[in-house]
Amino acid sequence: MLKLFRRNGWWTLQLQSTPRQPNSGSYFHSSTTARGCGTESQPTRVASPPPVQVGFTEFSGRGVFAKRMIWAGEMIHTAKPIVSHPSLSSLHAVCYSCLRKLRNQQCRAQSVSFCSQGCEEHSRIYFAVENKADWSAFHEYCSTHGLKYPLLVKRLACMIIANVASADILDLLQPATLSSTMIPLMEKELHLLRSTFADAQISDKQIAFLTGQWYISVIARIRINAFRIELAGESYEDLLSSAAALIQAEAAVGNAVYLLPSMYNHDCDPNTHIVWLQNADVKLKALRDIEAGEELRICYIDASMNRNARQTLLYEGFGFKCSCLRCMSDE
């Protein structure tokens, strides 16, 4: 597994050989292509840690920096989510584990489905916990109030109860600043979550971690670090389907939280592209040549919006006013 370590002011990525917990996986990995090697159809691939390191920026806190020259078009790294969950509107249309869109014959109107035996096995232990409970009231509450982040907390809580994740797994991520008006609403969410587990005969000892402090801390981190998953697909039909979904405002199939991708800062003219093709595994690709030591940045929002719209959305959604070169030049 790849983990972050502090060294000489940098957070570096190192491969660490540790026993894997059941159904756990490495949250990010890299497969780089050697330039000038192999063939066009089958390039030579060398598995290696991502060519990046996490350090501190002058104004934006932590950031991701290139350890070497990264070429335009290069796949920098991929990442698996720490936790993910389908949107309620996609609950029966995508894989309950990886969020891959299901074929028609795989969809079940009254239950969730998995796209493969591998995904079903990967989710087996925490899904056994989820399957004990009746989530209809919890889902109805989230649907009525337009909530998506409590679904991620629900999934994470089931993973913790199943011993495939630790209660502090998100602590490394930066939390959002929550307003005082949000806290009472979160207390209602927590009460509903705890009562759902209690009704399923999950013991008090198993959910001892599920305190108000823990819930608020996790929601604060999810709010600012969760990614909205919009699958691009790889075929012409997928692109047509994605375009239609965008028109209908139904492009997102779910949400997910990652480790390394959450360290990337924003720029309205980014040098790095973040994309989901067929499932929740994210891919980060260089949009241009990136010098060693240069910070890698992604765009958190739709970059085609005008400056005022971008500024408003970033401030309301992420709590900062963008001062990138594009915004400073009033583009």
Automatic annotation (TrEMBL):
UniProt feature coiled coil, ranges: none
InterPro entries on file: H3K4_H4K5_MeTrfase, SET_dom, SET_dom_sf
Lineage: superkingdom: Eukaryota
Record region (Disordered): 18-49
One Pfam entry name: SET
SUPFAM superfamilies: SET domain (SSF82199)
Domain SET: 50-301
One Gene Ontology term, aspect cellular component: nucleus
Residue ranges with Polar residues bias: 18-45
Name of the protein described by the UniProt record: SET domain-containing protein
Native organism: Cuscuta epithymum
